[in-house]
Amino acid sequence: VQLQASGGGLVQAGGSLRLSCAASEFAMEHYAIGWFRQAPGKQRDLVAAITSGGATNYVDSVKGRFTISRDNAKNTIYLQMASLKPEDTAVYLCAADRGTSLSRDPLLVDYWGQGTQVTVSS
């Protein structure tokens, strides 16, 4: 199982970015998958996820600004981020679980991709 994240960068507050996470060696549509983020000195937190059934959920701080989606044909998930704020600055990591929903506890996540840095300047 491999997850390859991309799309991070530097953006001004109010701007947008789209992150991608491509999966290989497994069919993403049968897994729960999503994005965590970790700022320096802080814990790793779940930001958005899609269940194996296709339901989405978000942490309150990004609701209405971030949209997670999955393209089964490309075996890729996306995180469209809009109205970015400096507090969104973090390393964003995609993750996958064999279960129906992605665990909020990073210690219980089955698979991780590498992180991609998102920096939002004020």
Description:
This protein is mainly beta and 122 residues long. Helix content is 0%, strand content 52%. The protein is built from no helices and 10 strands. The strands form 2 sheets. A 6-stranded mixed beta sheet has the order 2-10-9-4-5-6, with no helix packed on it. A 4-stranded antiparallel beta sheet has the order 1-3-8-7, with no helix packed on it. A hairpin with a 5-residue loop joins strand 5 (45-50) and strand 6 (56-58). It is globular. The N and C termini lie far apart (37 Å). The mean pLDDT is 95.
Widest beta sheet: strand line-up: 2-10-9-4-5-6
How confident is the prediction overall: mean pLDDT?
Answer: 95
Structural class call reads mainly beta
Distance between the termini: 37 Å
Elements, N to C (H/E): EEEEEEEEEE
How many β-strand runs?
Answer: 10
Unreliable stretches (pLDDT < 50, length at least 5) are: none
Strand content: over 45%
Round the Cα radius of gyration to an integer and report it.
13 Å
In short:
The chain has 122 residues and is mostly beta strands. Helices cover 0% and strands 52% of the residues.
Show the helix and strand layout.
Layout: E1 2-6, E2 9-12, E3 17-24, E4 32-38, E5 45-50, E6 56-58, E7 66-71, E8 76-81, E9 90-97, E10 111-121
Parallel strand pairs: 2-10
Antiparallel strand pairs: 1-3, 3-8, 4-5, 4-9, 5-6, 7-8, 9-10
Labels describing this entry:
six-stranded mixed β-sheet, 122 residues, 10 strands, 52% strand, four-stranded antiparallel β-sheet, mainly beta
